[in-house]
Amino acid sequence: MKIVCIAASFVPSKTANSVQVVKASHALSESGHNVVLLVPGGGGVSWDELQNLYGLRQKLTIRWIPENLTFKRYDYAFKAVQAARRLKPDLIYTWVLQAGVLALWQGTPVILELHDRVTGRFGPWLLNRFIKARPNRRILTNTHALKRILCSEFQMTGPEFDMIVSPNGVDLERYQALPTPEEARNILGLQEGFTAGYTGHFYAGRGMSLMFELAKAMPQINLLWVGGQQEDVAVWEERQKKDRVMNLTLTGFVDNARLPQYQAASDILLMPYEKKVSGSGGGNSAEIASPMKMFEYMAAGRAILSSDLPVIREVLDETTAVFCPPDDLTTWQENLTALRLDPGRREQLGRAARAAVEKYTWRSRAERALTGFL
Fold this sequence. Notes:
Elements: E1 2-6, H1 16-30, E2 34-40, H2 47-54, E3 61-65, H3 72-86, E4 91-94, H4 97-105, E5 110-114, H5 123-132, E6 137-141, H6 144-153, E7 163-165, H7 181-188, E8 195-199, H8 208-217, E9 222-226, H9 230-243, E10 248-250, H10 259-264, E11 268-271, H11 292-300, E12 303-307, E13 322-324, H12 329-340, H13 343-356, H14 362-370
């Protein structure tokens, strides 16, 4: 099919939503479809930069649409749908509710991907218009938790409501033949010794304070933080210097193409989400998120130590991870110590997670999104 993807995320960008949009669009292209991704902005980005930043294997066609921020997302949605129509697509795949409604009104089949509740002055009205404009429309969420919320709030309970759940994914090809933790640390020039790693942003709710306290309480373990905006990294470097925490390494942002090597450098990978989790746009995603790092951790084949949140258990269980109550430093310290002292348990967890992630590839996600739609 010819598929036009319409997203409101900026490309290039280091935000998780930008990575997710590019990965999902790239997977549709890898599945054999003719894909064009439309995003706001002026463009002027080289393919090499995009390839490294997002960890892409084959070229993805991206076109940039100028937007007038005075009209918020409506101006961009209108322009993007008009640009898409000129391409005569079989399908529009979008993360932008306004674009989804406009495209349906103009007769083009639409898959709308939602990652959050629909709120605001016009959001619920627009979603109701989208729901009622059947056929040839589908909603995709990345967690069952979000699907339940949307079905409850918008009374979508009958068979006529085409909504599927497709969690985020991972490029397994990039996680083949990873080095051992010791080998990876040597390649990257990292501190030697047992390492617990975290990759991702440092937004509120990601458990940075808990991991910092773990580093202070457990000098026998190295903490490796990979990622974060420059200003956030600077804040923690200042705290590290002030508290003289010598077993914490902050790398700063690392391109997605290099991320598997850094994840491989850890003996244990950490997901210390709190009860309230903010993203790049704020809000609280603790009940509904599908963290991309979870699938990357699983693909890396390392033991995972995670906060015990219901949405995380949609993917992980006791065979693939060890769970701790959010914010309970003592339990985190106890479980981290137990895993450090039990290499057999770590290996067992890592193998099980690696086997379980086989069904969570970006490509299988793309195929699931389209199955039975047109």
